[in-house]
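Students often ask why we bother encoding 3D structure as a string. The short answer is that it lets us treat folding as translation between two languages. Here is a chain of 213 residues written in the first language.
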Amino acid sequence: MPRATMASLIARVRLMVAESGTAIFSDDNIQDKLDECRFDVRYALLVPKPTYSNSLGIQYNDYYYIPSGEPSGKVVGMWESDEVLIWGDFTTLTPTSSDELVGHWTFSNQLPPVMIAGKRYDIYRAAADLLDYKIASLSATQFDFTADGQSFHLSQQLTFLEKRAADYRRKMEARVGAVGRADAPGERPLGVAPNQAELAGPVSANVPFLTGN
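And here it is in the second language, the structure alphabet:
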């Protein structure tokens, strides 16, 4: 059974994969695919956007999730609606309003820092994967044919879905992985012992167990 906190995201993805008519995917199917495209966030700082007032001074009413290192300063949403907001002393905060799809939370002048713990999703990757499944399912029945002098081009639907899937692929979030080089002592992958030759001395330098070579 799908989680109640996923209702908005499931509805959004169902719209993206053109499920307005006969549905191919159940809510559980969509939730499972979203869970494959999930980012778990723990104690990430929200960015305050202060409001300035002549009578009240600086008010901290609006907070947004902008990933650290994001050069464009883009606000990132698509959160499951079970997120927890936390103040600097690790007490739980209750916002005045929450917009998980946008990544915006409001308060009544809540001083920073405000942190968030929760789960957000790459809905474009999920929608593209689901469209691939849908294209594979429909390809056995959606074909062009001619009858009674008339031509029927059912494959146009597949072409449309393929274009949508390609568009969503371009909008997916980039994922970066670090790979160490075995010939560079300072860039060895995790699980490989660092080169200890400089510290162990000339005798131990020839022992693979100690040097990691």
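Translate back mentally: The chain has two domains: 1-37+122-173, 39-121. Keep this in mind for the problem set.
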